[in-house]
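Quick question: what would this complex look like in 3D?
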Amino acid sequence: MKLWGGRFTRTTDRLVEDFHSSISFDQWLYREDIAGSIAHARMLAATGLLTAAERDQIIKGLESIKADIEAGRVSFDLAAEDIHMNIEKLLTERIGEAGKKLHTARSRNDQVALDLRLYLKREIPRLQELLIALQKVLVELAEKHLHSIMPGYTHLQKAQPVTLAHHLLAYFEMFYRDRQRLHDCLQRLNVLPLGAGALAGTTLPIDREMVARELGFREVSYNSLDAVSDRDFVVEFLAAASLLMMHLSRFCEELILWSSEEFGFIELDDAYSTGSSMMPQKKNPDVAELVRGKTGRVYGHLLGMLTVLKGLPLAYNKDLQEDKEALFDALDTVKGCLMVFTPMLATIKFKTERMRQAAEGGFANATDVAEYLVRKGLPFREAHAVVGALVLDCLQKGRSFKDLTLAEWQSFSPLFGEDISNYLSIEACVNGRDLPGGPAPAAVSKALERARRLLAGK
Ligand code: ARG
């Protein structure tokens, strides 16, 4: 007999049972479901809907169920559909009559909305910890490579030299924004939906504020229809997770490129790379590739969830049950990726000599020469043209700026003087860019201070 079987004369079709039951995945909400039920039972007793004895029986029963689930002693019943009814059924089997009173003034609709919010209240801080661990590694590496010069790129063409520290701290900023987004998501979802009932609350005297206090919610929801049908917080989480995966994926793409022989900027540790079953010489960046690849499924969950919600009438609809697999898989994926990405990054060998050599070529100091002329009073657009002509001449003759005599410089512009040689070295190019947010070691030192401050929570 179903918990809701009163008005039915025939049993559920076996195929429907399989099709609509969510217990195979929503069992992962057991902790939240039990915590929510305990708070609910305390409230029911406080308002006189349960006796103190019934409340204590219920709480004891729920705690024993939790212990048994954690010890692997519970096998869930598909016919009981979901975690909410499985637990209620187990409770009544264990404690009898009092168990039948737990669902007073409550629906699975507000219950599942509560469980999901509680789940994210627990999981988001864990995810933030993983991001902090990654940011710490970035800061340590940046400290080590404050003076390591590498090419900066636009269009994947060598553009201007930067420091490796600066490049790494670009990712620090991305992951910082990810943490902020998760924080915002957590703030907005911190609202208690329980008490909204199926859609319109209850006639029984309940104390929602008490439940909110018990479960650590900032406030109670303001509209019962919205409370049971709102999954904005799931979408927001999936959007934040998608951006985070996008950042990881871009980073991975760079590590993949950098580990190629053509770039030769890094070597991945053996522990974080794999071989080929056929080609004995190969060392492949599979971990980075897989993180890049898994970005697709997290984006997929975001799009899937938005599509589930599109066009849903108020209030609860069973479509909403689709939220959980998306959310759980996205969380598992992001956590799994961060857990392997961070130690992979920490163990990378940076080939700084090779990076420096790469930064030397390609007239990466051309803008600096143009800015030299600007300092001597030439409008930038004209300076740009002069240096463009210089680059062309050098390319045609197979020479570089350092090979030019003063007379040759001056044949392009009389504004060039002896001091031009001070502006050509790669160090001069980098050190001169000491503006706030720039790549010079002096500027990056300040960025590092800020990064350390942020990590210390100040
Ligand atoms: N398993 C359901 C879900 O995940 C719980 C709520 C079901 N409510 C209902 N009226 N069928 O959404």
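Answer marked as accepted. Residues 22, 26, 82, 108-109, 112, 316, 318, 320-321 surround arginine (CB under 6 Å).
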